[in-house]
Amino acid sequence: MSTTQQPPHAQAAERTAQRARVFPPKAMPALEYTREVAEATTPIYEKVRHVIPEIEWPAHAPYIKAINDLKAERNAIILAHNYMTPEIYHGVADIVGDSLQLAKEAVKSEADVIVQCGVHFMAETSKILNPDKTILMPDMEAGCSLAQSITAEDVRGLREEHPGVPIVTYVNTSAEVKAECDICCTSSNAVQVVESLGAPRVLLVPDQYLAADVALRTDVEILTWEGACVVHQRFTGAEMREYREAVPGVKIIAHPECPTDVTAEADYIGSTAGMITWLKDNHPEKALLVTECSMADNIASEAPGVEFVRPCNLCPYMKMITLPKILDSLVNMRDEVTVDPVIAACARTAVERMINLKS
Ligand code: SF4
User: Fold this and answer.
1) pLDDT tens column, 180-214
2) For 257-306, how does the pLDDT look when each residue is reduced to its tens digit (9 = 90+)?
């Protein structure tokens, strides 16, 4: 019987056995804070000392050293989203950025293995664009409220309801949803993607707030879906006005997944990558990043002189990824993210259509 004729559980078992032959499990390294570990990780600690107390470093450092050693042995790289904790972002990541930056950079890599430190749809996007690489997720439960808000069946329903209207999907969706849509977009290129279609009406799913922000910037009529990000949805316009009053001169930098009364108060609205560029170009004295908490912690060293004002909200899914789980992924080569080849081919068309747009 060929692999494609096997039932799914048998295929998964076969893949696990194949992986074990190519990447035999390793022994779990000793995790002690030795002189060697301290010396190897001191330069890393210098980048995070503003957010990690010195007394806590011996708990992180042995994992960081062990993960970096294992990456070399496995010919692996770690992709870390901007919302990862600082010990991951600065300690073990090879590529950092927003979800699209990560997937695009991974294509250029010669690595055999990618450990995706982010959420599940990002690992799927990496697999879609890197079908020959092994993609590992340190915690398969790390999902996303936006990705969970819409299914492929929902998209098929929208097509029936709105015949002839092109459908743009935000990258924060499953591979199945991407496969049903015409093109992907990110929070930084959504307007460009919508206008590239040359249609008077476009469906932009699943984030209702990103869609509302795009609708303000284009003459194209935007229809949407009722999805939202649990992290950005919790900010309010009243909260922003209170901060403006309490912290004179503060610049409010909001992600377009925030509700419209929040973005209405912002000095800049953009993706996490756009936020970094804006801070570097404008050097505000005080900035309020209206997004996930780790963002300000991670980019503080790239924006010296900027005082970051809270509040922020934690993403419960992003915070499922930890150093011990990353180490376990590399030691035992689990858990691998796979995408059905037919779905991956359709989803790749939607992602590559976006990547190939001229900026
Ligand atoms: S921050 Fe929001 S959009 Fe990003 S992974 Fe978490 S729930 Fe999803």
Assistant:
1) 999 999 998 999 999 999 999 999 999 999 999 99
2) 999 999 999 999 998 888 989 999 999 999 999 999 888 888 887 788 89
Please give the pLDDT value at position 8.
Answer: 64
Mean pLDDT, range 23-48, rounded to an integer: 93
Burial-class residue 21 by CB neighbours within 10 Å (0-12, 13-18, 19+). exposed
Q: What is the rounded average pLDDT of the residues 78-91?
A: 96
Mean pLDDT computed over 35-64: 96
Which residue puts its alpha carbon closest to atom 8 of ligand 1?
A: 144
Structural domains in the chain? 3-143+319-341 (3.40.50.10800), 146-228 (3.40.50.10800), 232-314 (3.40.50.10800)
Q: How far is the CA of 315 from the centre of ligand 1 (A)?
A: 6
Contact (CB, 8 A) for 144 and 332? no
97-116 b/e (C-beta count within 10 Å ≥ 16 → b):
bbbbbbbbbbeebebebbbb
Q: What is the pLDDT of residues 340-356, one digit of tens each?
A: 999 999 999 999 999 88
Please list the residues that pair with 183 across neighbouring strands.
168
Q: Is the CB of 111 under 6 A from ligand 1?
A: no
Q: Which atom of ligand 1 is nearest to the CA of 83?
A: 1
Closest CA to 272 of 251, 255, 293, 294: 255
Separation of CA 29 and ligand 1 centre (Å): 32
Mean pLDDT for the stretch of residues 131-148:
96
Decide which of 51 and 204 is more confident. 204
- Measured in Å, residue 116 CA sits from the centre of ligand 1 at 15
Pocket test for ligand 1, best of 315, 319, 320, 321 (most atoms within 8 A of CB): 315
Decide whether any atom of ligand 1 lies within 6 Å of the 129 Cβ. no
Q: 164: CA distance to ligand 1 center in Å?
A: 30
**Does 41 contact ligand 1 (Cβ within 6 A)?**
no
